[in-house]
Amino acid sequence: LPPQATVRRLSIYLRCLNLLDEEGVSVVSSRELAERLDLNPAQVRKDLAYFGEFGKRGVGYSVLKLRDHIIKILGLQQKRLVGIIGAGGRLGHALALYKGFEKRNFKVVALFDKDPHVINQVYGEAGPIHHVSELPRLVKALGIEILVLCVPAEAVPEAFEYVLLSGARAVLNFAPVKLASTEEVTVHNVDLAMELESLSYHLGIRETG
Amino acid sequence: LPPQATVRRLSIYLRCLNLLDEEGVSVVSSRELAERLDLNPAQVRKDLAYFGEFGKRGVGYSVLKLRDHIIKILGLQQKRLVGIIGAGGRLGHALALYKGFEKRNFKVVALFDKDPHVINQVYGEAGPIHHVSELPRLVKALGIEILVLCVPAEAVPEAFEYVLLSGARAVLNFAPVKLASTEEVTVHNVDLAMELESLSYHLGIRETG
Ligand SMILES: NC(=O)c1ccc[n+]([C@@H]2O[C@H](COP(=O)([O-])OP(=O)(O)OC[C@H]3O[C@@H](n4cnc5c(N)ncnc54)[C@H](O)[C@@H]3O)[C@@H](O)[C@H]2O)c1
Ligand SMILES: NC(=O)c1ccc[n+]([C@@H]2O[C@H](COP(=O)([O-])OP(=O)(O)OC[C@H]3O[C@@H](n4cnc5c(N)ncnc54)[C@H](O)[C@@H]3O)[C@@H](O)[C@H]2O)c1
């Protein structure tokens, strides 16, 4: 299996290839891709080699062929259905309305919460907020594959219990509790403080010159 | 300059070293660090070598020494002050209250917005929401280094104008517009759809077996 960082770079290559296509570029070398992304050309070739041979030595990669290949590797050729747990909260509500998900073929189709004041409220196209106890039934009925967890830390055990009962295969966790993947469910934990740490690194370089 | 991905991995090593310290482990090899993080040991050694020599061949790294070194490299030994633009909105409000920032030595000290209905509202310790036109004055008065941008796409040009006037050196952009870094300001763009793409990759593997 390729390392996690390689998979993340595929998302970055995909965005770059989309831009190249918009600019009318039809062939690109690993060197040109690396330059555009501030990466090392050997890293680009190594990343792509995990998934088979594409480009011709000395000629480069076909932008469209490579893009379509990466779309398949990332499993983005089909629409992935998403549910949000804690949708009545600030973060969950913001993610329920974020148009950037649909642009990448992710559709938020169901919202869940526990707070009686928010049940049945409607946000955009995702429909009414359901009580979290409905999760197992609706995940199966709608074919939801990914659940986004936006609940407080103390609610994670109960919410994850419902996730396991539902049969959903993937969880994106924002709650400040490190959740581990299981046999059936792949879990990715997000901590936006890490985004600030990479900015802090650049502030440190400016200070030391 | 080390690649962006290396800097991100430093944040991951830092969290792992904190855990090892809590478990009472005082020495760790690049192999053990790599195993815990599902990385390649040569990648760990290569990452750390960018920043000087720390471990002894065959002995490993001192957990505390390596942790403190990474804290310094990431510029985390001092508190970094943060302001949020669009704090009256859903995402901005959720980030204003997120306790994970302070745990990593980032303190949200000022909130900004343009909507007259939210000006002067108080969220937690960050104080009242100021009008965005106050940004240049308050960034200088408080010594804010990082601004988090949580405004709609059409508001980005105006908000970024205030950022440039303020002298802040770093921006974390959530708005769906790709902002470029300038001479004075390092900009990182966040698209949470990329987190879903790395989950989609794992869904794709399950499907093809
Ligand atoms: N990882 C990050 O970078 C990051 C950033 C910001 C916030 N957060 C975290 O995200 C979470 C949400 O933050 P917020 O500001 O939106 O909080 P919030 O209080 O506004 O929202 C939480 C929502 O979860 C609901 N809830 C509580 N228990 C539940 C349960 N058992 N099942 C279903 N829903 C339940 C609540 O009713 C509420 O609507 C918090 O844990 C916060 O720490 C993480
Ligand atoms: N990158 C991601 O992964 C991601 C995820 C979710 C949302 N978003 C984006 O984040 C932004 C905020 O989302 P939201 O759901 O919180 O929206 P929102 O409408 O709730 O909040 C936007 C806030 O910005 C304020 N604002 C507007 N113009 C301003 C200006 N010129 N100066 C200062 N403040 C101004 C508004 O008054 C409002 O309070 C949107 O652009 C959304 O697309 C990005």
Query: How many beta strands in the DSSP annotation of chain A?
Result: 8
Number of domains of chain A: 2
Helical region count of chain A? 9
Which oligomeric state applies? Answer: homodimer
Percent in helix of chain A: 40-55%
Brief account:
With about 210 residues, the first copy, chain A, is of the alpha/beta class.
Detailed description of the structure:
Two copies of one chain form a homodimer. With 209 residues, chain A is of the alpha/beta class. The first copy, chain A, has two domains: 4-72, Arc Repressor Mutant, subunit A (Orthogonal Bundle); 80-193, NAD(P)-binding Rossmann-like Domain (Rossmann fold). Helices cover 45% and strands 16% of the residues of chain A. Chain A contains nine helices and eight strands. Chain A has helices at 4-22, 30-37, 41-49, 63-73, 90-97, 100-103, 135-142, 156-166, 193-208, and strands spanning 27-28, 61-62, 80-85, 106-113, 129-131, 146-149, 170-173, 186-189. Chain A has a six-stranded parallel β-sheet with strand order 5-4-3-6-7-8, with helices on both faces. In chain A, helix 1 packs antiparallel against helix 4, helix 2 (30-37) crosses helix 3 (41-49) and helix 7 (135-142) runs parallel beside helix 8 (156-166). The longest helix of chain A has 19 residues, at 4-22. The first copy, chain A, starts with a helix and ends with a helix. One nicotinamide-adenine-dinucleotide (NAD) sits between chains A (85-86, 88-92, 112-115, 118, 132, 150-153, 155, 158-159, 174-176, 190-192) and B (94-95, 97-98, 100). One nicotinamide-adenine-dinucleotide sits between chains B (85-86, 88-92, 112-115, 118, 132, 150-153, 155, 158-159, 174-176, 190-192) and A (94-95, 97-98, 100).
